[in-house]
Amino acid sequence: MVESEHDVSAHFDVTMDPDGDCLLRLKGRFDVGNISGIQKKLMAAIDTRRPKIVRLDLSEVTYLDDFGALLLSQLRDNVQRRGAIFELIKAPDHVQQMLSLVSFYETDRCQSTFDKRKSDASSRLGNAALRLFFNLRYLVSFLGSVLLAFGRAIAHPRSLRWNDTLSLMEKTGVDALPIVTLINFLLGLVMAFTAAMQLRQFGATIYVASLVAIAMVSELGPIMTAIIVAGRSGSAFAAEIGTMRISEEIDALFIMGFQPTLFLAVPRILASVIVVPLLTLFADIAGIVGGLIVGVMMLDLTVAAYLDQTIDSLTLSDFLWGFTKSVVFAAVIAWIGCLRGFQTRGGAASVGNAATSAVVSGVFFIIFFDAIFAFIRNYW
Q1: Which of the two residues, 79 and 210, has the higher pLDDT score?
Q2: Domain extent listing, the chain
Q3: How wide is the angle at C-alpha 166 spanned by C-alphas 323 and 289, nearest 5°?
Q4: 2-109 has which CATH code?
């Protein structure tokens, strides 16, 4: 049985005898320009006949490049994977030279590399340690770059994009005000409910105002505001800069003479540091109002009594402490968001991963620095 398949200047003939021996003759040029059309037909000819022996005759091959040699390697692997014998016969000198260049005859070097290597626990631990090391190195390097960019912005204020900074302040602060106010208002309600159930037993319901005020101003107000900003703005910073990274816009900025850190990171960090403390102030007020509603409606407290107790329990140091924490949280959130954006590599999925990583890392650093603040306040 003889069949002929043609594809521009490359074609082949297949001769099959009853004993299962297959003679495959390749003819013409087998290069990058014409092997794509013949590749599937060649593999199909072997798959449908399932021969026991395949003899590949290359005597009529006029030209063979590295892509053609790759085709022959794939054909051999396909035949041997089916348990058949593969033989190469009548190969001209120029064909043998090309096959030698690509190590065709060294079968251990031509094996498929698609199978994943099995990794043990020690190799995975080592890879994780290396990733952590390189991540920390990039983190420190980016921190230094941000500090240098801020120094340049202070020395040359006109180099800072003030219009973009104002726009980012609106997005980070004004647009986040409704959700920040609502969440902290509900948090104040919950805290007042919980405290009222315990303090009512001792006739000390007036201290609900003190508990809510101190907790909101010193701890929960800054933390909850920072977490909300990390979810909204931190992820947005990472996604925006990450998209610019994979679309090579950041490389274009660098080529045009712009400093990417000063151009992209500094406005976002500056905007966050300015508006997040103001958001925290509104969050504190919303939480206190939530506690006030519970105190008036459930505990039979008057508005004046509740507010007087709130004012008496708070000091200037409480406000300054919460303000300082909110400034640090804001800087960390924006810094981490920009860092993850600059670290983005790959395609669209990498942008989503960067945004997710920005939120997770931001929340972690918020809790971490809050623990440091608590340690300092208690032992310093």
Answers
A1: 210
A2: 2-109, 128-379
A3: 40
A4: 3.30.750.24
